[in-house]
Specification:
The complex is a heterodimer of chains A (333) and B (128).
Chain A lengths: L2 H15 L6 E6 L7 E7 L6 E7 L6 H6 L3 H13 L7 E4 L9 E5 L7 H6 L4 H18 L17 H13 L4 H12 L8 E3 L8 E4 L3 E5 L6 E3 L1 H9 L18 H10 L7 H28 L5 H7 L2 H13 L3
Antiparallel strand pairs in A: 1-2, 2-3, 3-5, 4-5, 6-9, 7-8
Chain B lengths: L6 H16 L5 H39 L6 H13 L8 H18 L4 H7 L6
Helix pairs in contact in B: 1-2, 2-3, 2-4
């Protein structure tokens, strides 16, 4: 769908998106994201304009995506359940129906703030809040992990090290030959800590999916398409993977904070008992998961008619995850 | 056989054209994709320049590690993967770790030479 068609469809929905409706204005596709279309727009103009985001799927999911990603209707329902339990998320305004002409998608409020990780770790206007971001990330994650599972739509469920076994099977399906992957899979098998009680996982909780306000810090967790139920350490380790530190390798939490600050906030938010050692184990899993996901981008690149150059470049990011893995494995207990 | 312009020089010309003439005319997602394309061309250029030496160094290490004189990089790399997978080789052994570190550092120098993880690895004491 082009911008004009999307604008027309949104115009028909306008009364449902804002009280009294209004003209759809300033529609633009936000850059970034190889999988999903995200559009920003306003309903109405001037002081009464209601800022919104449309998330919609342009192409059907690949069989592999179906295994790991939720559809956007499920995503919207998870957001609503999380919001009911005090999790800071953007409010869902409308879940698209077949007659809306937008396909699979939903509209949510557009929050002010910065989500680009590089700016959050480097720009001077975030200096005042950077020191407390790791604690806030832990606190929000603790709340996410306490959302009652009974209130959620059906989600994929894993337990303990099962998720590592699943990602190993994807690597085997691809038929790639990479010795660092092999070493990391053996490490995860041999060093697995005992499983914890499964919780709602965000699934992509990292700097880059966090909306940060320069005055108050963390505002919301974005981009829930990989959410599932599983081991709490999975979200914590992913947040600490070096790929999301934007050059600030010495600050393991998102390039802005320490493990201790994160875990202190996590406990305050109601998260389960968590040690730095357990967290580091799941950080290895995080880098390995990123390595597998980058490698699958190459599979999509060669098989898809679009031949997206972006996917080919993400495919080459496999090596960034591998260099982090070899460093982590070299210092693993 | 091929003299000039070299492949790397032609890539420079393509990247320069996209950066100075194409990109300014684009906006939004297409402008972003133009930047990604320039990144992709830079990777290809580094691979042309550094790839052959990196692979031949990796092949020599693999021959020493596996005690084999036969086989090309693909064959020996696959053998190493299978040995690690089935425990025939301990990935923690210093010579194995040394090979893994050198190989991945060479690849990141091609794929993403500014990546922070490369500096972290280069600051480590040598394996063994």
């Amino acid at each position: 769908m082009d911008a004009a068609a999307i604008s027309d469809a949104l115009q028909r929905l306008a009364p449902k998106l804002a009280p009294g409706g209004g003209e759809i204005a300033a529609l633009r596709r936000l850059s970034g994201g190889a999988n999903m279309e995200t559009w920003a727009f306003d309903v109405g103009a001037g002081a009464s304009a209601v800022p919104c985001i449309l998330r919609r799927r342009a192409h059907p999911m690949t069989p592999r995506e179906v295994r790991f990603n939720i559809d956007l209707v499920t995503e919207a329902r998870v957001l609503r359940a999380a919001a009911r339990h005090g999790v800071a998320v953007a409010a869902v305004r409308w879940i698209c129906e077949p007659g809306d002409g937008l396909g699979e998608g939903y509209v949510m409020e557009r929050l002010n703030g910065e989500a680009l990780g590089g700016r959050i770790v480097r720009k001077p206007e975030f200096a005042a809040v950077r020191g407390r971001l790791a604690y806030q990330c832990g606190e929000l994650l603790g709340r996410i992990h306490r959302v009652p599972l009974a209130e959620l739509p059906p989600l994929r469920r894993t337990c303990g090290v099962e998720e590592a076994v699943t990602f190993e099977s994807i690597y085997r399906e691809i038929g790639s030959q990479r010795p660092i992957f092999e070493a990391a899979f053996r490490y995860l098998e041999d060093a697995a800590p005992p499983a914890q009680e499964p919780v709602l996982l965000h699934g992509d909780y990292r700097n880059g999916n966090l909306m940060v306000d320069p005055a108050t810090g963390l505002r919301a967790a974005l981009d829930w398409e990989m959410c599932h139920i599983g081991e709490p350490g999975e979200d914590l380790g992913w947040l600490c993977a070096n790929s999301w530190r934007y050059g600030q390798s010495g600050k393991p939490v998102g390039g802005f904070g320490s493990y201790e600050q994160l875990l202190e906030g996590y406990a305050a938010g109601g998260g389960a008992a968590m040690s730095v050692e357990r967290l580091r184990y799941w950080e290895v899993f995080g880098s390995l998961k990123w390595a597998v996901l980058c490698r699958t981008m190459y599979e999509i690149f060669v098989s898809d008619e679009e031949h997206s150059v972006e996917r080919s470049v993400v495919g080459r990011r496999t090596s960034e995850a591998e260099i982090d893995l070899v460093h982590l494995l070299g210092s693993a207990p | 056989m091929i003299d000039s312009p070299s492949a790397a020089e032609m890539l420079d010309g393509i990247a320069h054209f996209i950066d100075t003439r194409v990109r300014p005319q684009l906006s939004g997602h297409d402008a972003y994709m133009a930047r990604v394309t320039i990144t992709a061309l830079a990777i290809v250029k580094r691979e042309l320049e550094q790839g052959p030496a990196a692979e031949s160094a990796a092949l020599q290490r693999l021959r020493a590690l596996l005690g084999r004189a036969d086989g090309d990089f693909a064959v020996l790399n696959k053998a190493l993967c299978e040995d690690i997978r089935h425990g025939a080789i301990d990935w923690r052994a210093p010579a194995v770790m040394d090979h893994l570190k050198r190989s991945i550092a060479d690849q990141v120098r091609i794929d993403q030479p500014d990546y922070s993880g490369l500096k972290v690895l280069e600051a480590e004491p040598p394996a063994g």
